[in-house]
Amino acid sequence: MRLRLHVGQLIPGLRYRIVRMPPCFPLRREPTSPNNKRWFVVGVALISFSSVLMALLTPDEQRGVNTLAVSTVIAALLFLAWLARILCYRCAMHNGRFYQQLVEYEQQLWWHQHRQVIGLQDIVLLGPSGTEPQHWSRLLLREHRSPQPVTESTGRALRLPQIVTKDSGTREIQLASLLVLLWRKQRPDALALSPRLFYWLGSPGAWQAFTQQASVTFPELLLPEHPENWLGEASLATVIEKINHATVDQTILIAGCASQPATSKDLPAGEAAVLWLVGREGVVQLNRGEICDSSTLANACQRALEQSEISEPPDACLLFTLPENELPSLNGWNLTHHVQDANWGITGNMAALILMSLAALNTQQQGKPSAWIARDLTAGYTTGIIKTYG
Question: Where are the domains of the chain?
Fold first, then answer.
């Protein structure tokens, strides 16, 4: 039997969480089967009591008939009550099995959606540690020297040497233009089809600079005046859903850039720019990832292994420093070798895109799964694993 009814229709509020979080349903209480022995004892006791009572209250000539009539009525009523009890028990058992089928269906549907992936076709990453794929290869192999912060009027910052201005707003505009130029360098061929949707993380001024440069460098791009705002895991889930219902040649462009003002904090300010072109297929595959809080991060990491259908944690896990009180105990997860604070500084909302880009580049270069753990733009953490195809 093919079930079309969702548990979310029976339990209001659960359907909304099917994509974002694992479905969690209340346990159904097992029905108690009727105790036939007890029913028999009660029936015998009632018939015996009614017989004695009729014998005491009726004349001798009517005693036999009245006693038989009352006993028959009581026996019939008890039999009907017993049948009703059996019917209720059978209905409860049937409802329980149907409920369990619906729960299993919802769980299978959630895992089917949760295991959907997209392909990263182009990955462009700019930061204080580099701009070219070979720069990131040395960084991921830990064969590079961390960039040195520069001192500005308001503090220290890690900066791209290609941009000389110190104003963070102007730097973002130049970062956006440089991002397009480096994309063209990595993709010398024209795009076969303009992306169907554009996501942007950054200021409107930086987006305007991005579109102006792209109109010259990629004339085939049909860029909107106002792109979709990139909202972290929520946007990633939407992109994966759209790509999995799109044709093979349709793509979505995700980009962003930010330059943090210099700061006097222990960790210097940083800056970065990221661009992804995603489609049904690509050089590596990216899944939805997991969203969680600090108390459930360990469970989310374990579930990420199930989501990616791998048994052992990846050798590389890209992350920025986690607070000691939120650092989970993860058996087999390496949370120290690829901490990126010294390479990027304070990156603000760009952190997750940076880490996912590095994980994707590492998977592309090493041919092995790579994980990431990052703070989400809304709340809590996101974590996931990027794999090669096959």
Answer: 7-114, 117-387
Do 120 and 284 meet the contact criterion of CB atoms below 8 Å apart? yes
For the chain, what's the residue count? 390
How large is the average pLDDT for residues 314-335? 79
Q: What's the pTM value of the predicted model, to 2 decimals?
A: 0.80
Tokens of 146: 């961390």
- pLDDT tens digits for range 108-134: 888 888 889 999 999 999 999 999 999
- At residue 15's C-alpha, the angle toward residues 311 and 356, to 5°, is 40
The answer to whether 246 and 281 are in contact (CB under 8 A) is no
**β-pair type (197-201, 252-259):** parallel
Report the alpha-carbon distance of residue 319 to residue 29 in Å, rounded.
43
Cα–Cα distance list, 259 to 105, 213, 235, 345, 356 (Å): 46, 19, 22, 11, 19
| CA-wise closest residue to 186 among 135, 229, 139 | 135
Tokens of 351: 């952190």
Region of 333 on the Ramachandran plot (φ > 0 left; ψ -120 to 50 alpha; else beta): beta
CA–CA separation, 363 vs 122, rounded Å? Answer: 14
What DSSP state is assigned to residue 263? B
Closest CA to 46 of 72, 66, 64: 72
Q: Which fold has domain 117-387?
A: Peroxisomal Thiolase; Chain A, domain 1 (3.40.47)
Contact (CB, 8 A) for 269 and 157? yes
